[in-house]
Amino acid sequence: MTAARTYSIRDFAQRAAETKAWAEANPALAEAWCEANKENAERSEAAERAAMGAARTAQALAECPRRLIRAGAPERNVTLWVAGLEPTPAWDAVKDFVAKGRGFALLTGDTGVGKTSAAVGGMALRLLEDKREDMPVLFVRAVEGARMGLYDAEDKKLAGQMLSCGLLVLDDLGAEFLSDGSIWRSILDEVIDTRYGDRTQTIITTNLDGGSFKQRYGARIADRIRHAGEPMPCGAVSLRKRGEG
């Protein structure tokens, strides 16, 4: 067995002197050698950054379903997103909308065409871009919103989140019961008006057509949505038999 060689300070000094002398005698080769070392270092740093980015992305993907459910998204639709949403007019429209970063998206179409799943997918895209631990996205079903009270602490907190979150999904507008004593219409008016002024993203899903929507919620809400976005027809072919929706 060969004994390990030890090096003294004198050995390192001699080696450094030899390297310097070689570089002075071969300047072109020395420059090429330095450039090669520099490129290798840059490649190593790039690979390390890529590995760290991939790890962060994997962690964000793993945490995304939990954050979606915590933000109110239905577990069924979250499961569909995890499995991979099929291309649909609704999903294509939402991906394009989220990339733009602001305004309103009014997803219209018959029941079962994938509006809610596309909206939840939009929430996921926003979460993967914005990894803060606060509430960058929020999902509110219209039937739940219509039950909101004026003085309940939880309802007041929810109303505040609807005003300020980065991306709000208002799901199935038109399915809720509007009584004369309901404050939902006034809450909805404030939410739409505030988010219109702040230019924050809002996805609305509904089975109503444009005329019926305006008649039900009034010209003020309909005009705000139309000015900051546009209706996005999602077709009439139900996906429920294939597990989408």
Can you walk me through this structure?
- The chain folds into two domains: 10-57; 71-242, P-loop containing nucleotide triphosphate hydrolases (Rossmann fold).
- Helices cover 60% and strands 11% of the residues.
- It is built from ten helices and five strands, in the order H-H-H-H-E-H-E-H-H-E-H-E-H-H-E.
- It has helices spanning 9-25, 27-70, 75-83, 89-100, 115-129, 142-145, 153-164, 184-198, 210-217, 219-228; strands spanning 104-108, 137-141, 167-173, 201-206, 229-233.
- A five-stranded parallel sheet has the order 2-3-4-1-5, with helices on both faces.
- Helix 8 links the parallel strand 3 and strand 4.
- Helix 1 crosses helix 2.
- The longest helix is centred in the first third of the chain and has 44 residues, at 27-70.
- The chain is elongated, with a radius of gyration of 28 Å.
- The termini are far apart.
Rounded to the nearest angstrom, the distance between the terminal CA atoms is 71 Å
Strand content: 5-15%
The CATH architecture of the largest domain comes to 3-Layer(aba) Sandwich
The secondary-structure element order is HHHHEHEHHEHEHHE
